[in-house]
Specification:
This protein has 166 residues and is α+β, with helices and mostly antiparallel strands. The protein has one domain. It is built from six helices and eight strands, in the order βααβββααββββαα. The strands form two sheets. Strands 1, 2, 3 and 4 form a four-stranded antiparallel sheet that branches. Strands 5-6-7-8 form a four-stranded antiparallel sheet.
């Protein structure tokens, strides 16, 4: 049975701003940075995910936000075929679990109480739009990032068109 209840949907990313700590993205030439550095050691912070009245904000301070944004949108696009997926935070034992059920997604996590139920199409649009906003904001703050071919390829793969900022 379709799920048509309006649901609160928000996904934002915050990159840690701590002058006491070095930021890997400030030390690299982001136009040529390899994927393993770009996606796993740069732009760390938190994921602010709010769904169906539940808060799945990470509050860890160490999530690789660009990697999460790309991975979440990419894996979510395959959720109807897979049936379920888990986004595991490799730095810890925390996870975010999603299960597809008749056009809706049930979302739970190890670090927040409750299960959110949201329409699949709305969650996929949220993930893609949030990835675009995050990538655009990072490219505005770090213009050389827009020249990174690895990032451009990942964004085109996930978003199905020209990379944000192009």
């Amino acid at each position: 049975m379709p799920y048509d209840k309006p649901a609160e949907l928000a996904l934002d990313f915050s990159v840690r701003e701590d002058p006491e700590r070095r930021k890997r993205e400030d030390e690299l030439d982001l136009a040529t940075a390899p994927g393993y550095q770009l996606f796993f050691s740069c732009f760390v912070g938190d994921v602010d995910l709010r769904l169906d009245g539940l808060n799945f904000r990470t509050n860890f301070g160490w999530v690789a936000t660009l990697s999460f944004a790309v991975g979440f949108a990419w894996r979510l696009s395959g959720l109807p075929a897979a049936g379920r997926m888990s986004m595991d935070f490799l730095e810890d034992d925390e996870w975010l679990s999603l299960r597809f059920d008749d056009g809706r997604v049930l979302v739970a996590s190890s670090y927040a109480r409750g299960i959110a139920v949201v329409p699949y199409a709305d969650l996929l649009k949220l993930a893609r739009d949030s990835l675009t906003r995050h990538a655009d904001a990072l490219m505005a703050a770090y213009p050389r990032l827009a020249e990174n071919r690895i990032l451009a390829g990942r964004l085109a793969m996930v978003l199905g068109g020209p990379a944000p900022g192009a």
